[in-house]
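Example record used in the benchmark description.
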Amino acid sequence: MNVPPLPRLHDSAVAVAPPDGGTGTWAGAPSAWRHGEDIYLAYRLRRPIGEGRGYANVVARSADGVRFTPVAEVHKDRFGGASLERPALVRTPEGRWRLYVSVATPGTKHWRVDVLEAGSPDELTDAPAKTVLPGDHTVGVKDPVVYCDGARWHLWASCHPLETDEHADRMSTWYATSPDGLAWQWQGVALAGRPGAWDARGVRVSAILPTADGIVATYDGRATAEENWEERTGVATGTFAALTATGGAPLTSPHAPGGLRYLSVVALPDGRHRVYYEMTRADGAHELRTELVQ
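Model output (structure tokens):
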């Protein structure tokens, strides 16, 4: 596979609608996992700044990949957070479920990642939380993509420098490894923005697909601070630790200002893939959409 399965923006369906209409109201940031005949989808619900921001992460189940029933929900207050961003849903080799939760520290631009673990997805609501990516006063960490190859855990996270609030929206993707998915060791920057390109201001890996030749990834990018929250989707290739953008125009929403981000990919038994993504709709709200692709 030289390119990952990408949305074609036709024959798609709304998997989760936003909680309201208008700019700043979102349903999205999906993380999907197939288990048996079912697809489990973790996602974030958000209201505008001043009205709650990212107030909940939800885990839902579907038999057809389109119609979802929530089975677990966690709110920002449980973590003492100002907002929640993209979760990562993973089933461990031992058959347990983990939800990695991105938490904003109140009164700052700092983010950290906590993890919940339980025997089934519906038990995640009450599972204890443990901080696994704390960040520090120099960097905020959020939006992890987590992959276990059976012997080793791999993670790509969006990291934001915090030297000034004005520039805290900048982001690059850092790569980390772990023996257990809990104690992580940073290995360096895996993907950074390109000066003068559509992703110059920052990049965030959204999906990883290991192949026989290495890694194919999708990522979110933006050119300016003004495009924050309306990132586009691009493609990168390389290794776990070093990815390079393939070039070309990004994938965007047909509705201004064009946000299409947080792509998540699920491989199906018939060889096709189901993709999930957050996209700007005509009224400025973001909805979580899905479609079948090769």
